Amino acid sequence: MYSQQYWLTAAQYLEEKRAAIVSFSQLNIKRTLRAPFFPYFFVDKKAVDGQLLGEVLSSYDKQKFKVVEEEHAFKVSASTFKDLNCLANLLFTSINFIPVVLQPERQFLLQQGWSYFDCFQFNEDGLPQKLSPQEMPKVQLPFFSEPLNETVRQLAESDAQQAERISETVALSNALAMPFDSLPPTRGLQAEALFENMFCSLGFNRQKKSEKEAPAKNAGVLPAENLIELDLSAVWPTLLTKPLFNIGFDSIDCDCCKPDGIGAGNILPNSTALVRIEREAFYFQSLSGAFAEEFHKNNPATRENRLRRMHDFCLAGLPVGPFYRNHEIEVPLMDAVQLERGGHARIVSLRETHWFCRRRESALSRQIFALHSKVDSAEKSLEELRRASLIEHGVLGPSLVSGMPDYLFQQSLLGVYSGLLSMVVPHLLSAGSAFYRKQLADSVAAVQANVLNSLQSLAEKSNSRVLHGWQGVFVRTDKPLTLIGEFSNALKAPAVIQAKIKRHGQWQARFLNIASQS
After folding, report:
1. Torsions phi, psi of 317, nearest 5?
2. Most buried pick, 16, 254, 340, 410, via CB within 10 A?
3. What confidence score (pLDDT) does residue 220 get?
4. How far, in Å, CA of 56 to CA of 357, rounded?
5. Backbone angles phi, psi at 284, to 5 degrees
6. pLDDT value, residue 257
7. Who's near 319: CB < 8 A, 6+ residues apart?
8. Counting runs of H as helices and runs of E as strands, what totals does the chain give?
9. Which tens digits make up the pLDDT trace of 37-74?
């Protein structure tokens, strides 16, 4: 038999006791759980082999730490958090390896699969059982005079924006497993915290952050007639999941699935191929802006030719060329396929090959699905609350439900988890992230470029035109719904696409759930 509901409101690490204490609250009632805990970090096997790790850590007191080998990494556990930081500093000073070291309270919660404001019931043995309720947490927090749910209810009547801000903070605390009063202030830092949670167990080396960020895309001035905007922020992370591209830190260039040729289904478009040009004075538009810029930099003799061509033909980016018949050049595989398909060149051979694993799902894929699950759960809860309010209050239901604390909480969860999901791909591409890996970023960017090229091809077949695109795509078309459907079918993946259609001078949003056709 279960007791009443409690919400997790606090976690504390007791270094001297080698333990963690978690507090569960329901209004003024509090229960605590104490458990032994030894903080830890992971070291990637590909970055540091076991022998080197042992040599580096051998100078530290062996009674104060333990190393356990796991599938992808070595788990280094320490007697105390102070010892753990000393071991991390030893790795950094000896071999320049910077492990991801989270605060011990956060480590403990992630280890248990718990987070702040999760809901629990205690069973007969006094053990907490996690639930998935719809309610705003009924807890008393030190910085509010009233319980949280009552505070939000009162603010919803007098200051709706403040009520929403508090609700969003609670949701973000839940999403990042970080205390309510110490959350990252910016979206970039929130994405970094999300990645810390995602990948701390894989042992990645935290890199020193670069000042370089992913370049912003400028849409310019766009004509309004027959123009729609496709928001692809939910599509990009889906493409990185298994069984699609299964791109992740632990799945690219695996040891078990190396492709045997260009036709292999798991070869990545940022692989390279040697092509032989079959046209005279030939230029082409690369699908990789980075490759075009690198070619332009390394071929100064024909620099002015490319700049003139870009200006004369109003091209969006630098062309690659000029080439002459029988000239051979190494290009991204996605360009090679396009050139051969158009009869402009022949593929001679593969050069540098990159691929994704077909057998094991990447940690990134699993985490993306987990975020999707959170989004779906919040959407279902919101629909249930709307339905219940409609039944209880009739036509007034839709207006009344929007100010209810439970509705605000689920709405905030939906916004927070959707926002974190949309930040996954931009953060992978950002050189300012400590988790930036060029090989992974190149693969992700190539997949995006290939998909946008497919959309361009579909648009051209229906006399439509893609005007701009990256996170979002602007398309001039008379048949937006048909184009969206064809695009989703071509992706062979479930997608939620927000199409903004301008009619009578107003932007109207339509959400389309496109089912998988695979």
Report:
1. -145, 175
2. 410
3. 42
4. 32
5. -145, 155
6. 92
7. 283, 284, 285, 292, 306, 309, 310
8. 15, 18
9. 999 999 988 889 999 999 999 999 999 999 999 888 99
3-state secondary structure of 193: helix
CB of 166 within 8 A of CB of 442? no
| Two structure tokens written together for 282 | 């030939």
Preceding peptide of 39 cis, ω within 30°: no
**72 DSSP 8-state letter:** S
Distance CA 488, CA 484 (A): 6
How far, in Å, CA of 236 to CA of 37, rounded? Answer: 38
User: Rounded to whole angstroms, what are the CA distances from 281 to 41, 314, 340, 468?
Assistant: 56, 19, 17, 28
Let me know: does 398 contact 386? Beta carbons within 8 Å: yes
DSSP letters for 213-248 = -PPPPP------TTEEEEE-TTHHHHHTSTTTT---
Q: For residue 180, count other CB atoms closer than 10 A to its CB.
A: 19
Spacing of C-alpha 66 from chain mean position = 32
SS in 3 state form for 138-187?
CECCCCCCCCHHHHHHHHHHHCHHHHHHHHHHHHHHHHHCCCCCCCCCCH
Cα radius of gyration rounded to whole Å, the chain: 27
- Sign of dihedral through CA atoms 141, 147, 150, 151? negative
Residues of the chain with pLDDT under 70: 1-3, 207-227, 467-472, 492-518
Q: Which CATH architecture has domain 1-133?
A: 2-Layer Sandwich (3.30)
CA–CA dist 392, 427 (Å, integer): 44
Is the CB of residue 335 less than 8 Å from the CB of residue 360?
Answer: no
Instruction: Copy the structure tokens of residue 169.
Output: 């903070």
User: Structural domain boundaries of the chain?
Assistant: 1-133, 160-252+363-518, 272-350
Provide the Cα torsion 145, 147, 149, 152; round to 10°: 0
Q: Calculate helix-pair angle for 438-461, 289-298, nearest 10 degrees.
A: 110
**Bridge partners for 331 per DSSP:** 273
Provide CB contacts within 8 A for 445, sequence distance 6+.
270, 288, 290, 429
Q: What is the largest CA-CA distance in the chain?
A: 81
The pLDDT value given to residue 284: 96
**Chain length of the chain:** 518
Kindly report the pTM of this predicted structure: 0.86
Calculate the dihedral angle through the C-alpha atoms of 398, 400, 402, 406, rounding to the nearest 10 degrees: -120
